[in-house]
Amino acid sequence: MSLADVTNRIHTAETRAGRPQGSARLIAVSKMQPPERVEAVLDAGHRLFGENRVQEAAGKWPAWREKYPGVALHLLGPLQTNKTRQAFGLFDAIHSLDRPKLARTIARIAQEEGRCPMLFVQVNTGEEPQKAGVLPGDADGFIQDCLAMDLPVVGLMCIPPAAEEPALHFALLKKIAERNALRELSMGMSNDFETAVSLGATYVRVGSAIFGARG
Ligand SMILES: *Cc1c(COP(=O)(O)O)cnc(C)c1O
Question: In order of start, what are the domains of the chain with their CATH numbers?
């Protein structure tokens, strides 16, 4: 596939679901990709990207932001509290808010800096022990605690278990978002982004289908 193919498929899925074009935004996941592939996508005019690691993003994106105005960068991977301030300097959104200590750290730094990236609470919909995210049963309480701290939580994120039907997980995420009045849903990757769009994704996170296999 390519950027154009993925974009077209998203538009088709939006139309099929009766959704307006552009209602599902494409985060091009550039982690571990050779720079020339990322630059080709920037040169094509795409401006929304995702990275998994603070350190990796810090080594690549400040220069690309200078060269390509209008870039928005989202952190998709786990965030250690001691990297929170650095993440504030690099990212426009964090998709991996998943524990009280991180929420408190973000709230403190937001207070000090007078601004905060857009936040997504990550939900471990498959209740996988090795995976980050709050458990579905703890999600409502955690989301409401974050909102009570004035954190700009706009939506939810999930990564379904590799061996399960993703649609069930996307539907669960949507249900949790709806009952907490959150509008954004970050769900869907290279193998299942069309399913995610059909179930209400407002952000899909697609890497290898755009850039090719990671090095
Ligand atoms: C790597 C990654 C993606 C993109 O995965 P692909 O299968 O390459 O599309 C999306 N979301 C998260 C959280 C990731 O870590």
Answer: 3-211 (3.20.20.10)
